[in-house]
Amino acid sequence: GFHNPAFLMLAHMLACAAIGSFLAGLKWTPSKLIRSRQQFLTAVLLSAVFCMAVVLGNVSLAFIPVSFTQAIGSTTPFFTAILAFVMQGQREAPFTYAALIPIMLGVIVASGGEPAFHVIGFTCCVAATALRALKSVVQSILMTDPAEKLDPMSLLLYMSCTSIIFLLPLTLTLEPNSFREAAALAASSPSFLYWLVANSCLAYLVSLTNFLVTRYTSALTLQVLCNAKGVVAAAVSVSIFHNVVTAQGCIGYGVTVAGVFRMQAL
Asked: Which of 21, 167, 203, 228 has its CA 20 to 30 A from that of 156?
């Protein structure tokens, strides 16, 4: 197997930069220039937050199972709602904030009943979750604030190019053998290269969809929708890796998921 997530994320960003530049060069997609130093720094912040979320998320997986990380990740809407209010002054309906309570409560219950609980893994996962929420809010600011406004395609191009600058040294530091392993796999099995390219190109569509949802709805809506993916990932993790889940953990996961769907229904 190929267990180098930082390398894969670097490949994804390289594909996003290449596809974005190609489409912009052909004038098939909008291409807006960075207009101010503030706008540039905000775009750099977006890339830095994205990279740190990836790194901390991968570190957490070394200490706690995927199912537990997905349960913690379900609290992203909570952090998103708070950050959107602080950074954008965006207010939600009172019932929406009320729905955040079971989301947080469920994770607290699940944490107490998680047999694989680890302080370092839990802390890194919570930090990664908060950073993902921050990324959603920052990208929302860059696409909706009149002073910062960029279209999704241009923002993805700028974010991917800047992320490469951050991810390359991180990959060389955290996964120094990843390039050698990738080359060896490509030489021994050409299909690996095909799958890597296909996966990286698909990442462009996923990232663009992420930005479009944020642009036309809100950062909070995006994170609530992403939690549907988290529920599936947690279930798959338990079924494939046979992670031990206690009754208390199941109750906690259930409460969190119920809160997520309640928020989505509001």
From this structure: 228
pLDDT digits (tens, 9 = 90+) for 148-183: 788 899 999 999 999 999 999 999 998 999 999 999
Identify the H or E element spanning 12: helix 5-25
Name which of 143, 141, 256, 132 is nearest 208 in CA terms.
Answer: 143
Give the span between the Cα atoms of 216 and 214, in whole angstroms. 6
Taking the CA of residue 251 as centre, how many other CA atoms within 13 Å lie in the half-sphere pointing to its CB?
8
Q: What is the pTM (predicted TM-score) of this model?
A: 0.80
CA atoms 133, 72, 201, 167: torsion sign: positive
